[in-house]
Amino acid sequence: MSAATAAVTMYTTTWCGYCNRLKKLMQREGIEFVEVDIEVTEGAADVVMAANGGNRTVPTLVFADGVALTNPSLDQVKAQLAQLPGA
Question: What's the rounded Cα separation, in Å, for the pair 72 and 75?
């Protein structure tokens, strides 16, 4: 699944505990996502900084409708996915 077709893209780093926790929760719930490491993927850090007032805060999730959530709870992720067209 590419970022263009995913309902949600998660911007992460390998060392982020919050990222790892949210990834595990989303996987357990069967929520599909594309993971992008901001330290490896060119331009990814710029997306995160644009969503977070210049800060490189992860996890940052960007949904298909353009909404971004920073370090959301699983319930916040589910609620945002429910708002997407076709949900």
Answer: 8
Ranges assigned E (strand) in the chain: 8-12, 34-37, 60-63, 68-70
State the pTM of this model. Answer: 0.91
Sequence letter at residue 50: A
Determine how β-strand 68-70 pairs with β-strand 60-63.
antiparallel
Rounded-to-integer distance, Cα 10 and Cα 73, Å = 13
Q: Name the residue type at position 26.
A: M
pLDDT surpasses 60 at 31: yes
DSSP at 32:
-
- pLDDT mean over 31-35: 95
